[in-house]
Amino acid sequence: MYFLAPVWAGGLNKMKKIMKKEEGVSPVIATILMVAITVVLAATVYIMVAGMGTGGTNKLVMNLSVNPQQSDIDNHKVALNVAMSNPSSVDMSKVTVTVGGKKIASGNVSLMDLDGDGKLSDGDMLVINDPAVTHGALVAISISGYSGNAQKTLP
Question: Distance between CA atoms of 76 and 74, rounded to whole angstroms?
């Protein structure tokens, strides 16, 4: 009992004073902090999810020009010079060619691989040999994984 007397004598009052002196964050500050954290989290989630609804996140950057020396549109053949920067090169299995709205079979599209890398890249030539190739037809090239397409109206 000798050891308990000092605790009951004044130790408990000191403990109560210590507990009462502890202060927390005011309700106004707590509310402001919660709103700020919520806004930051919502913005982070929005930035991460924003591009998922679109077809491709990368924009196709490609220009086409008709190569008159290699083309014979009267006989349904056109050669297109390709200038592209995005992507820098792509496997032909990812390339879709349409002429006048008609998808061209891969057997009717050939690659003249001028740089020898085995892929469609800047400076290469696409040769399309199909009955859909006529004067005034719109040729469109798209690449899976990229948004947009490159277009050229045949002379």
Answer: 6
CATH 2.130.10.10 corresponds to the domain 58-153: no
Q: Where are the domains of the chain?
A: 5-53, 58-153
Dump pLDDT digits (tens) for 135-153. 999 999 999 888 888 899 9
Q: First and final CA of the chain: distance in angstroms?
A: 110
Q: Which two tokens stand for residue 60?
A: 């196709």
pTM: 0.61
Place of tokens 């220009």: 63
pLDDT, tens digit, 9 for 90 and up, residues 95-149: 999 998 899 888 899 888 888 888 888 889 999 999 999 999 999 999 988 888 8
- The secondary structure element, H or E, covering residue 127 is strand 125-129
